[in-house]
Batch of 2 targets.
Target 1
Amino acid sequence: MKKLGLALFFCLLFSFQLKAEEGPKVEIKSFARISDNQKNMTAELCGKVEGQKKRMIVDIISDPKSKKPTPFSTISQIDGTFCILITTYMGQAIARVGNGPKTETLID
């Protein structure tokens, strides 16, 4: 019985530790085309990495549901903010840090 209680204690301790070590998440602040010209497919994507302890690489995929999704990368500032110019035909993007959760966005 003591072994079962001890095993249960360590399982609970390990699960709490995993929740405490959640990785950084990306929050998209803005995503908009830089021109009113419909032929210009350039857009600015800005956001913030929440929970970072150092500057991090932010991976961005433009038009993730198209036949040719395009990857981009940028580095967040010390306060977690980042901005990048990307090319998008469908007005969609996904951003994430490492293996963290994906954040989807559409053009404003």
Note: The radius of gyration is 19 Å.
Target 2
Amino acid sequence: MNKFKTDINGRLPITLNDLRWIEGGISNALKAVFDAYGEDKFIISGCEFTINSGYRECSEGFIYWEGEILYTPGGSAFFDESNIPVFELEVTYDPAGLKLFKNGVQNDTYEIRRAKYYSVNYGSTSGKLIALSAKRLSDLMADLIVGVPSFLSEIYQFIVSVPTLGSDVYPLITGVSYYGDDVRALAEQSSVLAKKQQGAWTVVTPSNQFTFAGINSADQLKHRLDEFGNLQLIGAITGAEDPDGYEMCQIPNCTPPSERLMRVFVNNNGLRVFLPCWLETDGKIRIKQTDGHVYPGGIAYLNETIPLD
């Protein structure tokens, strides 16, 4: 990283170019670190989302934005079939930085660069970071080690195939030697690491009178397991009025020990309501008719993370 040396005696002269050198050195170092994750915009920390009626509340946090780290105070943003929450670079100025230059002109010099959280129309997301589907630093770090479990597994399979390797030494990395038993123990931990990886998004298969009619393929309801084993659901599905069985879909190989309560946002020709729905112990997602909730028909939107333990 570039440094501005200030430990030299003799009354060092300082100019604006020196400040630019310092700022550039820090910016270049940060960019080099975060660009390694392969995304130009993502959530570093914070930015936890909660549901409040038709809004998505976002806590404060930090966003990586094309070589910069931006603070976001979070806030509230509307979410429905037409509007989606996003982050966008917002530039303002601190009045304390208004300076009178020698040429007699006043200029703002304290620039505040933050990530603004608000809603836009689905067709206006270009150049912005879609908040609810934004990747997180923890996700990207996990993606980088996806290959580690398979690499260790290959070593392990080689080790166990030759029983006499336990006391032998192998230079797996130049200049570093490992005993076979050490490699065996390390490889056995690969199964633990493998469980920490996110699954791929899979579109659900609609049940009964639910379909994907009128929904773009990119917005269809899908599911995956996150790195902590939680079930993530995001997207939309269309249902008929008061459908048979009230079952939307079934998540394969999903057997939580008890029912999990969720909320689904429904839009039917301008009638917008939130209804409770359940993930049942057999993996089925349904609105329960026995609880007196009537499904009005229309498009249902889900955005949930559900613990399965």
Note: Residues 37-140 form one domain.
